[in-house]
Amino acid sequence: MSSSQRADLGRALCIITGASRGFGRTVAREMSRLVKPGSAMVLTARSGEDLRALQAELAESEAGRAGLKVQCVPADLAQMEGLLSVVSEAEAAFSEHIDHVILVNNAASLGDVSRFTRTFTEMAEVDSYLSLNVSSCLCLTARILQALPSRPGLQRSIINITSLCALQPFCSWALYCTGKAAREMMFRVLAAEEPDLRVLSYSPGPLDTEMQAVARSSTADPDLRKTFSDMFAAGQLLTCEASCAKLMKLLLEDSFTSGAHIDVFGPDHCVP
Ligand SMILES: NC(=O)c1ccc[n+]([C@@H]2O[C@H](COP(=O)([O-])OP(=O)(O)OC[C@H]3O[C@@H](n4cnc5c(N)ncnc54)[C@H](OP(=O)(O)O)[C@@H]3O)[C@@H](O)[C@H]2O)c1
């Protein structure tokens, strides 16, 4: 451990979207080990059953036995109603003892990667994709910032789970690349506007999750599809745990430039 790394994330309120599976579930597990007693978590996704299974697992963990409070919010983040239920649960879980609010905007969808850009002729389809992947992320972040305002001694960290697709075009991934690019710029603007926030866009690398399985089987572009299949066959996908360890290190060190895009492989990474 470097001398500039803190030992824990404080007495934190962690709000994690897309916590039912994949990377979000791992983030919840790893964060639970790094927060101080008296911390709380609000976990959200559509699958209530998977969230409750994670809640039960955390309750039996060392953190749970030390008093970590975990609330599940089964909600569709593409709907305003779902988003509001997350905000009210976060408000309820907040207390004067909390010294760190951490919002992890992790939930996302891949969109239809089986088609090329020229086929996206229906505004309703594109709007629906952007509603979950961009609008809900902006509005949830804004509402959390309003509901849990700045006060002395309170750190507020906003994490955006991003992708290389925010920076590079991937053929047949128009929706996903557009959403990730828009989302990332939105967080750069936020970081510029609010210097007291700690804003990070973390790119976790190719992860062995359901999203990656869909990418491997459904991507229309043959070269990209082959790249993903080859990576899977060669065992080159990262585990969620390995990538999450890098994110936790970044949060503990807390030395990133607010608004930065940081890739798990470092600044020179440029192929999927
Ligand atoms: N996998 C990769 O290779 C990779 C690479 C770079 C970046 N990323 C990014 O990493 C993050 C996590 O990806 P992942 O691979 O873990 O994906 P995943 O396995 O598909 O999980 C996505 C999560 O988002 C939730 N979600 C999806 N739609 C939702 C909705 N309408 N409302 C609420 N929650 C919703 C899902 O839960 P429910 O279905 O229960 O709602 C699930 O918990 C994403 O932001 C992704 O873009 C992934």
From TrEMBL:
Entry annotated with the keyword Cytoplasm: yes
InterPro entries given in the database record: Biopterin_syn/organic_redct, NAD(P)-bd_dom_sf, SDR_fam, Sepiapterin_red
EC number per UniProt: 1.1.1.153
GO MF: sepiapterin reductase (NADP+) activity
Gene Ontology annotations for the cellular component aspect, listed alphabetically: cytoplasm
GO-annotated biological processes: tetrahydrobiopterin biosynthetic process
Keyword Ribosomal protein: no
Pfam families tied to this protein: adh_short
Main localization category: cytoplasm
Subcellular localization: Cytoplasm
Alphabetized UniProt keyword annotations: Cytoplasm, NADP, Oxidoreductase
Quaternary structure (record): Homodimer.
Family statement: Belongs to the sepiapterin reductase family.
Protein name: Sepiapterin reductase
Lineage summary: Eukaryota, Metazoa, Chordata, Craniata, Vertebrata
